[in-house]
Amino acid sequence: MKTHDLRSYRSAEILPRSEQLAWKIAEVAADPVPVLPEVTEMIINRVIDNAAVAAASVGRRPVASARAQALCHPMRRGATVFGMPHGTRVSPEWAAWANGTAVRELDFHDTFLAADYSHPGDNIPPILAVAQHTGRSGAELIRGIATGYEIQVELVRGICLHEHKIDHIAHLGPSAAAGIGTLLNLPAEVIYQAVQQALHVTTTTRQSRKGEISSWKAFAPAFAGKMAIEAVDRALRGEGAPSPAWEGEDGFIAWMLSGPDARYTVRLPGHGEPKRAILDTYTKEYSAEYQSQALIDLARRLGPQIGDLVQVDSIVIHTSHHTHHVIGTGANDPQKMDPDASRETLDHSIMYIFAVALEDGGWHHVRSYAPERAHRPETVALWHKISTVEDPDWTRRYHARDPKQKAFGGRVVVTLKDGRQIVDELALADAHPDGARPFRRENYVRKFLTLSDGILSGAEQTRFLDAAENLADLPADGLGLLNFTVAADALGAPRPRGIFDWE
């Protein structure tokens, strides 16, 4: 890996194109390195993972809305839309919009956390949509996805967005554009322009994940994927981008990040070096914010030790800065303690999540968020006894580069009404690659079968899994097999019309 130093440059200074981050990303994307077998295997796992969570969300309102919009843009070649017949094709950017929303809606697919946050599986819908539209093979798709993961992971390692209240899709737009560039075997010049355009149009605020969290949380990554496709299309037509997008005097570093005097470092593979970053990412066993994964496992372990939860006086979760300030009491969001909060908000309340996991001994992607579940008096009482505090050591471990030190959990102190304390901690979720029971192929398959049960027919489940597990051998124009079809009554209630289907 090569380390690249970044800073802002005045317009009067000369920053050669070869030294710009966007060009270095483009060079990585254009480098025709083979994909390692273990990377191919993990890409297949994540294609299955994405389909699993998309199937579970296919009838939910935001997903149905995005799908309805996409279906207003049919195209002869085009790309498939989750839930629809395999022959239904729409313009690729709209397929990315619909499928990206389906993948993101339940906050249940893969994650990577470092200096910033990400769900790198969000790269798959736009890259797959373009691959279907352009008749690419499974092997070509795998190369594109490997690049998308590589670029997003390294941007997340090197550049913190959340401290400036910028949403993490600002790393996703460039990574998806780079992945599409690899997929289509585009020259570095075209990828360079597309990456910068994608950065420029996907820089948004973190209010999408703050306060009264709405369905935009699911739409936001789909928007970035859609913008990435449009950016590549414009670049292919010879259109340029604001350059240098990161380092310019009025660019990303100077005005969106830490200012003209800031310094950042981003590592990228050298020429001929394989793209391995997907192997550093991890998926979710539970449908909740990633920082809650280890704490759900810890709640399962603590429940039997505590016994009667009525005897709990207080629960304090000592954890990282991120967990405390984003999903903990450090966010200062009253909605995180409100039984009437949206599912998206409860998903970002570790106080709610920990209370339910203690009571139920686990977590369910539907039942745990049901309004009647959130309104149980005993749950509300326990929920309001839970708080978080930032612990510098957990923050250090959260940001550690050494995998043996890295941690996303916390230490929990349960104080009972008689004064006794029960203390336990867990650094990594059980399903993490370094956890107690890491996810393997069989776990991804089981997750798909569980989440799609009652939504996909048994024959359709089997057909999809066969296609996904043989992804590397799918021929050109064979990627439509990575769609799944469901019965019309599983697609949710009809949505109100919008502009695109106005009558």
Automatic annotation (TrEMBL):
Main EC class the enzyme belongs to: lyase
MmgE/PrpD C-terminal domain mapped to chain residues: 286-472
Gene3D superfamilies documented for this protein: 2-methylcitrate dehydratase PrpD (3.30.1330.120)
MmgE/PrpD N-terminal domain: residues covered: 19-264
EC number: 4.2.1.79
Alphabetized Pfam families for the sequence: MmgE_PrpD_C (PF19305), MmgE_PrpD_N (PF03972)
Keywords from the UniProt entry: Lyase
The keyword Lyase belongs to this UniProt entry's keyword annotation: yes
UniProt GO molecular function: 2-methylcitrate dehydratase activity
Subunit structure: Monomer.
Family: Belongs to the PrpD family.
Protein name according to UniProt: 2-methylcitrate dehydratase
Organism: Rhodobacter capsulatus (strain ATCC BAA-309 / NBRC 16581 / SB1003)
